[in-house]
Write a structure and sequence with these properties.
Layout (H helix, E strand, L loop, with lengths): L3 E5 L12 H14 L3 E4 L2 E2 L8 H14 L5 E4 L2 E3 L4 H5 L10 E5 L9 H10 L3 E5 L9 H9 L3 E5 L9 H12 L5 E3 L5 H8 L6 H15 L2
Parallel strand pairs: 1-2, 2-4, 3-5, 5-6, 6-7, 7-8, 8-9
Length: 223
């Protein structure tokens, strides 16, 4: 109740998330009934989605608001893959949470060749990187995560990681990072309603995990 979700693929037909306005309307009703207050729509901006850039997505977002009216406050951001096209986007216009925090991701299996340089470039332009779902990066050591944190990178937890959606190893790592206070934000990373509802029903959390998530939700509300 009153949640701000900072990571959702709810903008229809632009990536591997919701595919149609009808599907979006159904998902919006679901989130309204849950009491969600605000959502950042974060479509992928990456080589695999060649049409996606700030200008195109802002146009689609305006169409979305007209076709999907809701009591939920929707805002547009994006999830940027740190790939060979990223600097081109950064040098033009980026979609951030609050003109400060920029949601980024990497491949799950290997780091960008110039990860440290890309992080520096983001900060040099005045943005603070928020690394989406770091618990899922199989290649990234805990030591590297701590190095990124020391440089000012913020971490965003995928809520469904706690339910084992991405495997036991990812779930264990997510809980460890959560309880040690390494995350700043939490998001659903919503793509499809059926899967989201099914996995959400499997989450069992301890009291200290719930309290840790409440802190992240408060951080979300400040964006």
């Amino acid at each position: 109740m009153g949640m701000t979700d900072v990571h959702a693929h709810l903008l229809p037909g632009v990536d591997d998330g919701v595919s149609s306005v009808e599907e979006a309307k159904k998902a919006i009703k679901y989130f309204e009934d849950m009491g969600v207050e605000r959502m950042f729509l974060t479509p992928h901006i990456m080589t695999d989605c060649p049409n996606n850039n700030a200008e195109f997505l802002k146009q689609r977002f305006e169409e979305f608001k007209k076709s999907c009216p809701s009591k939920i406050e929707f805002r547009l951001a994006a999830e940027y893959m740190l790939d060979e096209k990223f600097i081109g986007h950064l040098n033009k216009e980026v979609l951030s949470f609050d003109n400060k925090h920029l949601l980024v991701e990497t491949s799950y299996f290997s780091a960008p060749i110039e990860l440290d340089t890309l992080i520096y470039d983001i900060m040099a332009t005045g943005y603070q990187p928020v690394l989406a779902h770091p618990e899922r990066y199989l290649y990234m050591s805990d030591a590297k995560l701590m190095q990124l944190l020391s440089r000012g990178v913020k971490l965003q937890l995928n809520f469904l990681s706690l339910a084992g959606l991405y495997g036991k190893h990812v779930s264990a790592r997510a809980k460890s990072l959560l309880l040690s206070g390494k995350y700043t934000f939490v998001g659903s990373d919503f793509h499809h309603q059926e899967r989201y509802e099914r996995v959400l029903s499997r989450i069992i959390l301890k009291k200290e995990e719930i309290e840790a998530i409440r802190i992240l939700l408060e951080n979300n509300r400040k964006l």
